[in-house]
């Protein structure tokens, strides 16, 4: 399929493969995906309730009624409200809008606001991005003589409100072909139906709500966002131009990512800390100076929002650690869902904090702010794939005053006394919905490519699949087993990781940058290659453009060998290693005699297993006494030569957890001693034994005499005595070591001592050599795990 797309559409193989992965497997669907415009929008009257909604609003126009737009305080609610206000201006309706205060009123319609609308002379309320669950409130509005048209996109409850019209693609029986519209998208469809055309001049507002609410950028949303970006890039709306300026965004090249990470948070900041009305005024303003003032205010609120988020995140992390400590003390597993509440936690930002805890601990998170004066907790929740948050909350609905949302995000209000029961209920659902492996974050990879394939041309072709976002994410590329031609840290405090993938100085190499990943540099430095996952982008510097990879994840699938032999201060290197491993909670084994160990390591070793070690264990082994059953550690340090290289190999073979080997010993191998193990030298030593036979004394004494006569090292002479004794070429009798007069013809390889000496020699040569062969040797042992991420 990819080959067909590549040939018929003139795409690279990478771009064609990505289209197939995104469900566009034919030239027709791929063309629609890449370039569909306004003609691809669906008929708005396919939405159940649209005809009734249009009829009621037109009746309001005819009778000059006063209409209230009832919105929501998040970016989608602000966008929906603003779009509806633009529509009612065009329809020349008398109108106003109302958005509840997040902290004082909470989400959705409330009785007090409905009564005030009736008192102010409104006869029709049109909800945007809310209302689908407002059964009681809408019933009260109807009792006061108010008509209500609901436009919403949230999951409908079992019982719907008795409104004059409900427009929601997710309601039962709605034939609309696309269910993923944001609240702003539903408002856009209402405008399309009322005007008899697609109002693309407001598509920028619809795009903001769609992106900020994390709606899938597929089908109709893709068209709305593409058209919205084009409208925004023309800088015709003062509000977006002002937002771009305060956020440092180039309006002429604004992308979906810019809206999601720059503009959206500033729009949201109004409703999170104060009132969303400021953001609505920005989006409907036609005055450049007013827009600049409003955008500056939102920017300042966003700075405050970040500080509040940081403070609550620290408190929430501490609360989660305490919750896990209690579980450990009781011998229980950690809860499958994070459920935390704190007095004074701002309900406007705890959704962000929930997202942060989810990212760090990878489990569903529910964060609530407690109002001690009322005893009510208002909160937000975020979920991981596999856990339907809305369904889980539905099973606990009897514990809550109110709840609503989607499978991935939700909000709720409940009494503090029900908090523990909520945790228990959500954890029961987690046990039902999730398997242990679901709690492990997975990097989804779209494409595999080499550094040579990651060109500017490839990036340009992949960009044709924009806009990227929820449902159509920026493609993640795996550069597999790529050579690390360069590895360093950059930025203040060396917080960022800089890699060059491919051959050093090679024109086909690829630059890679990992922001905030500088701490991985030390762990990577013992590797020659890595699997790197990231997003391709263009780096422009001094007028030059180069392809680069934004690192999102990485893995070393080979053992790491840190060659620090010859370092002037190996003890300092060891202590730095110790500090890193303690922070990671990993274990380390050190081969070195007591005289070679620093006092600090002695102290830590003595304390191994204590609470201050964070679960780490530092094991120290004398070079002559290595564990036959292996090392229990992730990293092994050779501070000194082992007495036997073969014993070291045996110990490592029994240690599948070892992922790194640190070489700190001195290179002092004796080539002369190794030379005497060669077959010709051994034959020479046998000749000397014949001439000296009988050779008196113990084996050690005889070896010294043989060494002196033959001019060989004592160890080589002792090996010769053992080998020839095993082969029955010599024997020890009362006169000493005597050569047999008629020995059987045997090969040196039949001697166990000789075979071990040859193996010892080969290992000595290997482990005194370059690091790449050592890395290959270490990687051959079965069961080895070498992953670092």
TrEMBL record:
The keyword Nuclease applies. One of its GO terms (biological process) is DNA repair. Pfam families: DHH (PF01368), DHHA1 (PF02272), RecJ_OB (PF17768), ssDNA-exonuc_C (PF10141). Residues 336-422 form the DHHA1 domain. Residues 66-209 form the DDH domain. Residues 445-553 form the RecJ OB domain. Keywords: Exonuclease, Hydrolase, Nuclease. It comes from the Bacteria. Gene3D superfamilies: 2.40.50.460, 3.90.1640.30. Residues 561-778 form the Single-stranded-DNA-specific exonuclease RecJ C-terminal domain. GO terms for molecular function: 5'-3' exonuclease activity; nucleic acid binding. Belongs to the RecJ family. This is Single-stranded-DNA-specific exonuclease RecJ. It comes from Paenibacillus herberti.
């Amino acid at each position: 399929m990819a080959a067909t797309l590549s040939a018929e559409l003139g795409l690279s193989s990478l771009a064609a493969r990505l289209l197939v992965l995104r469900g566009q497997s034919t030239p027709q669907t791929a063309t629609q995906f890449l370039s569909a415009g306004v003609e691809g929008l669906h008929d708005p009257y396919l939405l159940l309730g649209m005809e009734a909604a249009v009829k009621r609003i037109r009746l309001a126009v005819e009778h000059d009624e006063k209409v209230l737009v009832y919105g929501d305080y998040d970016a989608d609610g602000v966008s929906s409200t603003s779009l509806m206000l633009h529509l009612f201006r065009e329809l020349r309706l008398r109108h106003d809008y109302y958005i509840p205060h997040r902290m004082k009123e909470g989400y959705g319609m409330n009785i007090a606001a409905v009564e005030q609308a009736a008192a102010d002379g409104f006869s029709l309320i049109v909800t945007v991005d809310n209302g689908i669950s407002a059964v009681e409130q809408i019933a009260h509005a109807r009792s006061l003589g108010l008509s209500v048209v609901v436009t919403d996109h949230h999951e409908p409850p079992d019982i719907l409100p008795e409104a004059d019209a409900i427009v929601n693609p997710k309601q039962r029986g709605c034939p609309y072909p696309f269910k993923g519209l944001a609240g702003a998208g539903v408002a856009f469809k209402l405008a399309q139906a009322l005007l008899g055309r697609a109002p693309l001049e407001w598509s920028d507002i619809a795009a903001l709500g769609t992106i900020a609410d994390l709606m899938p950028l597929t089908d109709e949303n893709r068209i709305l966002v593409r058209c919205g970006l084009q409208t925004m890039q023309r800088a015709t709306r003062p509000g977006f131009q002002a937002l771009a300026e305060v956020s440092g965004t180039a309006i002429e090249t604004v992308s979906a990512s810019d809206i999601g990470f720059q503009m959206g948070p500033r729009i949201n900041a109004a409703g999170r800390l104060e009132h969303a009305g400021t953001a609505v005024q920005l989006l409907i303003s036609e005055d450049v100076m007013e827009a600049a003032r409003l955008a500056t205010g939102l920017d300042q609120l966003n700075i405050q929002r970040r500080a509040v988020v940081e403070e609550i995140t620290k408190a929430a992390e501490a609360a989660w650690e305490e919750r896990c400590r209690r579980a450990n003390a009781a011998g229980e597993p950690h809860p499958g869902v994070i459920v935390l509440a704190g007095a004074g936690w701002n309900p406007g930002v705890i959704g962000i904090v929930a997202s942060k805890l989810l990212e760090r601990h990878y489990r569903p998170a529910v964060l609530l702010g407690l109002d001690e004066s009322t005893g009510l907790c208002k909160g937000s929740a975020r979920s991981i794939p596999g856990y339907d948050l809305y369904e889980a909350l539905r099973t606990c609905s009897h514990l809550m005053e109110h709840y609503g949302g989607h499978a991935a995000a939700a909000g709720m209000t409940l009494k503090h006394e029900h908090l523990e029961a909520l945790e228990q209920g959500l954890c029961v659902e987690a046990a039902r919905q999730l398997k242990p492996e679901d709690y492990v974050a997975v990097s989804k990879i779209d494409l595999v490519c080499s550094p040579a394939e990651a060109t500017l041309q490839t990036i340009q072709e992949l960009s044709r699949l924009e806009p990227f976002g929820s449902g159509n994410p920026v493609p993640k590329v795996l550069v597999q087993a790529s050579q690390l031609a360069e590895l360093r840290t950059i930025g203040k405090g060396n917080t960022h990781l800089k890699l060059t993938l491919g051959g050093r100085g090679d024109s086909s190499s690829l630059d890679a940058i990992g922001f905030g990943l500088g701490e991985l540099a030390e762990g990577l430095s013992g590797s020659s290659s890595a699997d790197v996952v990231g997003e391709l982008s263009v780096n422009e510097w001094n007028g030059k453009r180069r392809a680069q990879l934004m690192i999102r994840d990485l893995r070393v699938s080979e053992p790491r060998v840190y060659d620090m032999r010859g370092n002037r201060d190996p003890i300092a290197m060891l202590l730095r290693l110790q500090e890193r491993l303690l922070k990671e909670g990993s274990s380390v084994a050190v081969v070195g005699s007591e005289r070679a160990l620093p006092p600090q390591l002695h102290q830590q070793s003595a304390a191994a297993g204590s609470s201050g070690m964070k679960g780490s264990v530092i094991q120290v082994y004398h070079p002559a006494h290595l564990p036959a059953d292996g090392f229990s550690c992730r990293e092994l340090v050779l501070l000194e030569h082992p007495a036997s290289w073969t014993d070291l190999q045996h110990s490592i073979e029994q240690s599948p957890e070892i992922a790194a080997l640190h070489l700190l010993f001195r290179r002092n191998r004796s080539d002369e001693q190794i030379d005497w193990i060669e077959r010709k030298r051994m034959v020479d030593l046998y000749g000397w034994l014949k001439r000296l036979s009988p050779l008196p004394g113990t084996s050690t004494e005889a070896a010294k005499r043989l060494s002196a006569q033959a001019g060989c090292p004592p160890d080589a002479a002792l090996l010769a005595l053992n080998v020839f004794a095993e082969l029955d070429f010599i024997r020890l009798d009362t006169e000493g070591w005597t050569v047999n007069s008629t020995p059987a013809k045997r090969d040196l390889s039949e001697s166990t001592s000789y075979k071990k000496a040859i193996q010892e020699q080969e290992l000595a040569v290997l482990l005194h050599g370059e690091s790449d062969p050592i890395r290959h040797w270490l990687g051959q042992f079965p069961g080895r795990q070498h992953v670092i991420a």
